[in-house]
Amino acid sequence: MTVMKTSLRNFFAHKGRMALSAIAVLLSVAFVTGTLVFTDTMGTTFDKLFAATASDVTVSAKGASDTGETRADNGRPPVMPESVLGTVRGTDGVKSAEGTVFSTSVTVVDADKDSLSPTSGAPTIVGNWNANDARTMKISSGNAPRGPDQIMVDADTADKHHLKLGDEIGVITAVGTHRSKISGIADFQVTNPGAAIFYFDTKTAQEALVGETGVYTNVNVTAASGFSDAQVKKNVASALDKGYQVQTAKEVADANAKDVGEFMGVMKYAMLGFAGIAFLVGIFLIINTFSMLVAQRTREIGLMRAIGSSRKQVNRSVLAEALLLGVFGSVLGVGAGVGLAIGLMKLMGATGMNLSTDDLTVAWTTPVVGLVLGVVVTVLAAYLPARRAGKVSPMAALRDSGAPVDARAGVVRAVLGLVLTGAGGFALYLAAQADKAKEGSMWLGGGVVLSLIGFVVIGPLLAGGVVRVLGAAVLRIFGPVGRMAERNALRNPRRTGATGAALMIGLALVACLSVVGSSMVASATDQLDKTVGTDFIIQSDTGQLITPQAVQAVKSAEGLKGVTEYKWTEADFTTPDGETLKKTAITAADPSYATDLATETVAGNLKDAYRPDSMSVHEEFAKDHGISLGSKISVAFQGGSTARLTVRAITSSDVVIDQGAMYTAIDTMAKYVPADRMPLDTLVFASAKEGQEAAAYTSLKAALDDYPQYKVRDQTDYKEALKDQIGQLLNMIYGLLALAIIVAILGVVNTLALSVVERTREIGLMRAIGLSRRQLRRMIRLESVVIALFGALLGLGLGMGWGATAQQLLALEGLKVLDIPWPTITGVFLGSAFVGLFAALVPAFRAGRMNVLNAIATE
User: Fold this and answer.
1) C-alpha 552, offset from chain centre
2) Which of 252, 592, 741, 854 has its CA 20 to 30 A from that of 622?
3) Phi, psi of 216 (to 5 degrees)
């Protein structure tokens, strides 16, 4: 009880000094809690949606996925004949059955030819208005579609794009473009996660999406009273031919939830990983806080020991303070986490994914995880300072106002740090020398962890040398004030090392990812320059396949020398060694693709792969299956027959563009795949006539004006798009890393604030002998700057080493160019100086306001 009273007294006596550590705990716990609440809420939203929209039993066409997905590589959804609907209606246990047709392989545009598809990645769904949809959608204005010139739109899409009754809508599919006017607007009765939904009447939907009437993609079944969904499923499955997919409402909901769950799982654990980094950085802040508090209370601890307190009691007293800090910060963090989740939901709403706060889900495990994690991390971080406090002898503490320095521990720390850093460097060397990316990635992971821990441990040893160098380069120009700032940073290398290490972690990851991202762009650009011989690349950024009508529009453009179509599908391969490989990718292109992309071959000529009944394979595939030139491979095309193709070329596996692709001619594929089953183009390439590049570029854009889902890019555009894509990914990662950097900044602020308190008498004496307030503030700011630059220098150096090693592994996958983004590295380094200045604002201001006489009188 005495220990707890002492801990409470000390905690509240130093609550101002604890505040920044509590904020660090709060932020880290909030990020974890917010992530869990946000992903759980997304799960609840989708679960409710899937449960509400699924009929008792659903029959899907042959070839549909487990979720009833209607997307197909030929652009048309798989369908079933109308007779299936009649069979289902006559099955025992079926109360009613309704045929539906819908597709997600669509693009919808307004009268100005602007896309109405979501930008959040959610699907665009076009189907027929049916009784099942009427359960979850309510017509709020107008009426349901009643003919080929009418279409209904969901209210969210209408609001977002300012659509109203009578506006013209164009639906672009593989069949063609169907234009209608908005006849009605329907509101969701459940939360819409962001999909754009449009409804035709049944006949119009069949004609616009499939190109024929009398077919359906699904049959929705309502079970009769007294029959379970499972019984109806069994009866319906028995009545139909094999191949049709029959699922209960729960099975459909579970299949959809599994698909969404995989995506949310990746997002959840990625965000938790960044929260873990923030916790790691927060550990240094907490260690520094308690180390400095213990140092400032050395005399007090000595008195406690002198009047009978044991080492364990002193230790427990410090740990109890840490427990209070952890509980306080974690409780606030849990509350802030719920607020963060709501903020993320609002942010997602701005991008088009609607998540209702009515579905806010806070599982009982979420606050428990946040509280336990925050408290455990805080107490563990305070253990070393607490142990150090317990080892202070009464006499030594009463003689000295500062904590005793354990020289032996410093030597052990330096040796351990050197060993860990050396082991990490050696692991990185082995990773760079690896022959296989998988093997090298294991060494890379080990090297990153060991070198990071090594730099953290050896930080105090490095601080002495690095701070002196930085002092000579940055601080000496400020005269005596700069030299005092340098000495202050060197006064306690352990503290400087720990403070710099907190900033080092976040900046090391920033530097590593910058090097990897820049190298990827440079490698891809280099490959484009060396291998791509075409002038223009036409594709969809959202993965939409290119419709035949759009391909014809490309071919009609003026100034073109040639157009190359490029298709992709899956087939079952039976190789010469007798192995059958299911769903193996095969690319079909026009023969001109051999010159559009100058892919390196290790045997044969790639042009020969486009001869009748011929193909190419890549080098690793050939080695794995004993394939050489002239070998025969049985290729069973999806939706078609089996071909015996002769291998005419073996391409290098050491490329970036089309790595691992196996080619055949479109004419060869068309020989074995019916015309209505042929996949649509993934890409289209176009080459301009000599000297007509600019005119052809303009003509292509004009030709595709009716198809806004497709982009026309020349090689410069393509490089910029690639750079932008990687840049957007890196910016998102940097945004998540910002949490760790913010916590590190709090660490610098806390270190300076406690250091000012620790040096109160010293500051008073300096002021008494003539140091002005302005000089004092500058001294503290310069000390902060040099600590921040120390952390930045270590972090950027370490991160560039990691990035260069990672690039060596990527070189095994064809990304051979190492590119150090010096502008980014330099900007981050200089930005660290501003971070140091910012962190010192409050401590410097408080130091400048000290009363000189009171400061001198401080014990």
Assistant:
1) 37
2) 592
3) -140, 155
Q: 161 lies in a domain?
A: yes
Mean per-residue pLDDT, 270-282: 81
Question: Is the domain of 679 the same as that of 614?
Answer: yes
- Cβ of 477: how many Cβ atoms within 10 Å? 8
For the chain, how many structural domains are there in total? 4
Q: Map residue 115 onto helix, strand or coil.
A: strand
Q: Are residues 675 and 721 in the same domain?
A: no
> What are 38-77's pLDDT values in tens digits?
888 888 888 887 777 888 899 988 877 665 555 577 888 8
Q: CA separation (Å) from 426 to 420, 447, 448, 723, 810?
A: 10, 7, 11, 32, 19
Task: Mark which of 365, 382, 399 sits at the end of a domain.
Answer: 382
| 1's tokens | 């009880």
What are the angstrom distances between the C-alpha of 526 and each of 517, 529, 618, 811? 14, 5, 21, 13
Domain check: are 117 and 232 in the same one? yes
In a domain, 446, yes or no: no
Q: In this prediction, what percent of the chain has a pLDDT beyond 70?
A: 91
Do the Cβ atoms of 83 and 59 come closer than 8 Å?
no
**673 phi/psi in degrees, rounded to 5:** -120, 125
- The three-state (H, E, C) secondary structure of 352-408, written as one string: CCCCCHHHCCCCCHHHHHHHHHHHHHHHHHHHHHHHHHHCCCHHHHHHCCCCCCCHH
**Looking at residue 217, what DSSP letter applies?**
S
Distance between CA atoms of residues 589 and 502, nearest Å: 53
Do 598 and 525 share a domain, yes or no? no
Give the dihedral of Cα atoms 611, 614, 616, 622; nearest 10 deg: -150
Distance (Å, whole) CA 722 – CA 728: 10
Domain coverage including residue 638:
545-708
Structure tokens at 606: 């790639």
Q: What is the mean pLDDT of the chain?
A: 84
